[in-house]
């Protein structure tokens, strides 16, 4: 796949350039919006001057695109992909070939209103009342610390001020029978004190039907509440306090199972096959509650700004559903009942039979973090940032499986308990503490030429305490690991003229290692692979990346173009594997993965009424070393589309009086994606295309829209977990269905 438009882009970069409109973030008639990034490098600057690849969504572009969940803006970002997994709060985000794995932390820093969110489950939820979104691509650990091996996602919500205003929005989607209501009120609540209250509620019947239970497979209800108070304690001192609460109830483990050799898959699995019905006999559940509170103090001084915050987050989640796989779906009917997870020859329940084998998971996390940072003034030749960070969190995990052989054909998945007959599993109490010191210096060598150096040192101590006793490991058995890393970043940025700049960077980052379940290695050796290299704990992942890029505004500020090329070397890349005989799900290691890629994006105002936008990304990944699976060497790394393309247009014009009609269409292509490290035939998803469309009538205080996502109703699987069993010549594949076409209406009233 060749990068589209490179020759045309070279012509643009060589063309004469007119001066752009002012850089205050305003947009004059017939021009594209001048975007200011506020957090990509921890200070505000015009996006085209920042020596980093960053995709920015302003308040207006968020509204135009109808962005309500993370997958919406990620679909508009080249070389970034999103997978909604089988649980409501869990998602996988992949940035430039650096992937997120199940049961592992994400490869990006997630920052909301300047505060780093340590809990990965805080990301995938309803997004309301936003001011901007910035997707920073490339290792950025020097700026944001641990886990930023792929980049950072920065979300800024609306800030209250002395103006009273509010909004009420309601919508309905027909296919899933989903309704949603959200809104906010904001304004002064006392002298120099301002408040904002935001709420959102979503209720969905579901996109898919379970044939056995004659009921929806994937219902969802979600409530999000957020409050924010900003107080001007003095003319140069601001206190910003936020608190949030979220509650979600839905489904879990809604995957389809493929098995070969069977009548349907005689020679291998097929990741592109989407016609397996949902027939599980157990009604799954996923209950999640989360809350957070933070306080941030900003003190503006003569030499710069001192910022300090403290934050606390709490998540509690439990879920239950079907077991692994039921061979009765394929014509094999073993006798039952048998103790689940005890007899390795047993075949576990997954289907419309009287075998109600089930699994249960419980996860909770409580974390407290604090940061202090000093940022010098921007209007000086030498600029700097210095600070320190501290994090402490406790994450408890319990994984249980059981089969009671009750003969129940339709029932709700039970809540399993440690010690119940026929129940086995693993559990751990994880205690982590981390601290970091960081700094950044930028210097204008000559007019237009800036050199920047950033350095961050992170240290993390992790401890895992066993909470499920077994023959080999008693209660309280403890494991410890420590990780630390020095993360540098160097950049050069040259402003060729006021509207065109070029940059080059080198950066390093790491993602912490962790613990697999106790006894994982022994189980895999005994049941799956005697020569396995899987361990009960896994090391840190690190990335080193080189990048060059250019950014420019052309044709009297009517066209913005960004282009970048990069090379990233990953060491100890984390990869999730599921071993079906031992029913273990460890994080394993691919020793070295090399990534080469390029991307560009553009926004252009063809006329005052017509805006076009688009972009492209290409990725070439190659596994260079894999001690655990030598057959993977030379293959593509899983979960990395080899390309993605985006093209869209928005047309608006007055309809009558103060009412404007807006029509928008988006086309997105996702390239071929492997899900198996060996690139086994049948474990790749073919290239597929999605189209979204939206029609709106807008005025100063109201808006009415009709929209469709996946307008052409493309059938595809969003995710797959292939499981080859070499010793038996059997292939499993668990796939997660993509959302079909949705059509909805939405009405908004602004006060």
Explain this structure.
The protein is mostly beta strands and 751 residues long. It has a single domain (6-750), classed as Beta Barrel (Maltoporin, Chain A), CATH 2.40.170.20. Helices cover 4% and strands 55% of the residues. The protein has five helices and 42 strands. Strand 40 and strand 41 (730-737) form a beta hairpin. The chain is globular, with a radius of gyration of 26 Å. The two termini are 49 Å apart. Mean pLDDT is 86; it is low at 1-28 and 326-350.
Please identify the structural class as seen in this structure. Answer: mainly beta
Largest sheet: 22 strands, antiparallel, barrel
Provide the CATH superfamily: TonB-dependent receptor, beta-barrel domain
Counting DSSP H or I runs of 4 or more residues, the number of helices is 5
What is the CATH architecture descriptor?
Answer: Beta Barrel
Q: What is the chains' assembly state?
A: single chain
Shape annotation: globular
How large a portion of the residues is in β-strands, by DSSP E?
A: over 45%
Briefly, what CATH class? Answer: Mainly Beta
State the separation between the terminal residues, measured CA to CA: 49 Å
* CATH topology annotation: Maltoporin, Chain A
Total individual domains: 1
> What is the β-strand count?
42
Taking all Cα atoms into account, the compactness measure Rg is 26 Å
- Poorly predicted regions are 1-28, 326-350
Mean pLDDT: 86
Q: What is the share of helical residues?
A: under 10%
